[in-house]
User: Fold this.
Amino acid sequence: MARHKGNLYACLLGIVLVITIFWIATGDLRNRVSFWPNPSSKFPDFSHYDNFTHTLSDEQFPTNDKDKRIIVIGDVHGMNESLTALLNRLSYDMQKDILIHLGDLTTKGPVEDSLAVLSFMKNNNILGVRGNNDQQVLEWRAWMDWIVSQPGGRDWLVEVDDRWPDYELPLEKGNMFAFDSQPSLTKKHNWGKKVPEGWKPLGDHYQVARAMSPSQYNYLRSLPLVLYAPAGHVFFVHAGLLAADPSRKLTHYKQPLSHWPSIEQREHDIPAIRNAQELALLSDIPQNQDPWVVQNIRSVRKKGKPTRSSSKGTPFSDLWNDVMNKCSGFRTSKTQFGSNTRLVGYQESRLADLPCYPSTVVYGHAAGRGLDVKRWSVGLDSGCFYGRKLSALVLDARSFSSGASGDHTFDFPSEATTDQLHAEPSLPGAVTNHTFDSLSSATDLRIKFDHAGEARIISVKCH
Assistant:
């Protein structure tokens, strides 16, 4: 009997030992199988739109300090040498100048140059907004952090990295089927189980995301989508904003510039009223609360839908200027303070002014349109990555005016060269639209800014 019990115990011990060995031996396989246990599982939020709008303080945006400049730079796209050349051309002083970028710091250029640009911006805590390409880099990095937190995820990501040289060249030639010749772990269809729909693995955004440091990632995460400078009545955004909801008539009571804001201040408290209306532009126009719109818009289609297209629809900047040009100021508007009255019929068609002061939007993103300057908007993406120029808007104390006293303005020529830099401004006949990319010598320009101020645009050739 004791012998049978001994055999039984030995048998059970053997079974336990076999199971233990099998469990250890298949650990990696179990991890890979459990990496995506439920195909219907939802992805976490990788977008991190935690900081949509940041309002600049007077210290961050000095409009009355004659010793300080505000320098706003268009899309860099990893062109680090061009960024350095532009800052040198500007004699950028880190101790005095306020530097603001308009997003799309990375990608398109070499990965190492993208990282160098990120390091400069991060190390110097440069103000700026998040571009659509920055957004994709950020989302890939958030996805990677999530992947390595999953069972087997780190090993899978390491194998993807190890296999990169095997499919880098085919991918550069547009062959997305390069994955299919690799082990199943890195096959294209396996990516589909682990990556949100529509994402393109292993491209520029993926590479920058994989290579950047945690502090560079945190810098991108910290960038808002919109910077608002109430002291200068200026918005900074990567792609654009709308001055009115295009799905409604301009005089609809929900349009923020169709009536005075309801605030307790008296009528002559112009700064407070302007601030209230400008904040309403951000909060009351639904498209301006949509991250995709402010990072991607170029035009608006006939039915009021924003689009990335430069060739279809009306440029958003045209719509912005159409509205802002109707802002006549408090003393000349025909609409009384506190009124929400809506004009109808022929009255609306003859509408010449709105109860508001204009504000300016400064943006990038539209490289196809080049340097695009209108009365109340400045587009600074002058196509550096495409071998054209990297541009900066330079503001100082002469750029800003409250507009509350007097009505004199300065008008500047539509073309300028370095020889014309110190020329006196021309007087009558404001030029409201400028396109400068066709001017090979146009590296230093003066433009009208704010109510009665002036600004400069300085560009360098990109290589």
